[in-house]
Amino acid sequence: MDGGVTTAQLQEWVRAFARSIEVNKELLTELDAAIGDADHGANMHRGLTAAVTALDEAGPLGPAAMFKKVGMTLVSTIGGASGPLYGTFFLRLGGALGDADPVAPDGFAAALRAGLDGVVARGKAEAGDKTMYDALAPAVDALDAGLAAGEPWAAALRRASAAADAGRDATTPMLARKGRASYLGERSIGHQDPGATSTALLVAAAADTLDRAPAVSAGGPGEGTALR
């Protein structure tokens, strides 16, 4: 990708994620109803709507300041564990990006891993715990692998999105070991994790927005992709 990822594209990524959460809000709530509090869809929608509003009101910001605003807004508006986890992800991501504009693909990949490290530090999750980690960690690893293999930027992003989707699907047969779902014990088996599902939407939004030339991405993608 010539020129790297621009700040405008990074902001469009957040907006595309918000649209995708809106489209899939009911599905996320249904998934959470099976093993949680039945509020993941509503909480994520509320938080990301507030984050987009905060960006609209803030005016031009560099990557670090932009993701700090997104992260802090999510922490203050999303209930349960998702607010701190997603908030920490964006705060760490922005801190790693700094004020670089545009950001080289390897720089974005490194920032994405910093966001993953933040999620681990906050939630203490590991592979197989049936959490957002099970979608996010494979996506980060896949992006690194694609770039290391010399894949085009767009192809590496698609590889990351496919890995996130596979990680999301792999949570269904897992026994939950973290969060409210862990209270269900064996009854958590057979249900797709809502956090991993929203994380797969996050990575899919990145694949849809960050691979485009700046002139194209300014128009933004459509209304998000429904998982049904």
Report on the architecture of this protein:
- This protein has helices at 7-23, 25-35, 40-58, 63-77, 82-97, 105-123, 133-148, 153-170, 194-209, 214-217.
- The chain is an all-alpha fold.
- It has a single domain, classed as DhaL domain (Serine Threonine Protein Phosphatase 5, Tetratricopeptide repeat, Alpha Horseshoe), CATH 1.25.40.340.
- Helix 1 (7-23) runs antiparallel to helix 3, helix 4 (63-77) runs antiparallel to helix 5 and helix 5 packs antiparallel against helix 6.
- The chain is globular and about 45 Å long.
Q: Major sheet, described briefly?
A: none
Give start-end ranges of low-pLDDT stretches: 213-223
CATH superfamily: DhaL domain
Q: What's the end-to-end separation, in Å?
A: 31 Å
- Count of DSSP-assigned helices: 10
Mass-distribution shape: globular
Q: What is the ordering of alpha helices and beta strands?
A: HHHHHHHHHH
Helix content: 55-70%
CATH architecture: Alpha Horseshoe
Radius of gyration: 16 Å
Q: How many beta-strand runs? A: 0
Number of domains: 1
The percent range for strand residues is: under 5%
CATH topology assignment: Serine Threonine Protein Phosphatase 5, Tetratricopeptide repeat
Q: Briefly, what CATH class?
A: Mainly Alpha
Chain-averaged pLDDT: 88
What oligomeric state is this? Answer: single chain
What structural class results from the helix and strand content?
A: mainly alpha
